[in-house]
Specification:
Keywords: Cell membrane, Membrane, Transmembrane, Transmembrane helix, Transport. The structure is a single chain. It is built from four helices and no strands. It is mainly alpha-helical and about 100 residues long. Helix 1 runs antiparallel to helix 2.
Length: about 100
């Protein structure tokens, strides 16, 4: 169950990153509220997952999900640039996540 909580925490991290961008520096109320609520949920689920998943593994997976998710949202929603170097960096992040998962047993 801890891995499920960690995946949901990572998904919430993507949501709060997106809504933070939409808040325009916390000047828009609804995106600001969504940011704060999803941040709290993300941190809480990360903490619950860390009860049984090692710190280094949980934190790495959580930030990796957030990084890759934000990267994809940036491309799909904000038309951010896609080039070989950015894709290569994303592949390295995903590779690191896979290795971290397998190394934790």
């Amino acid at each position: 169950m801890s891995w499920f909580y960690l995946l949901i925490a990572g998904a919430l991290e993507v949501i709060w990153a997106f809504s933070m961008k939409q808040s325009h520096g916390f000047t828009r109320l609804t995106p600001s509220i969504i940011t704060i609520v999803t941040m709290i949920g993300s941190f809480w689920l990360l903490a619950v997952a860390m009860r049984t998943i090692p710190l280094g593994t949980a934190y790495t997976i959580w930030t990796g999900i957030g990084a890759i998710g934000a990267f994809l949202v940036g491309i799909m929603v904000f038309a951010e640039p896609v080039n070989a170097m950015r894709i290569g960096a994303a592949i390295l992040i995903v590779s690191g996540l896979v290795l971290m998962k397998f190394s934790s047993g």
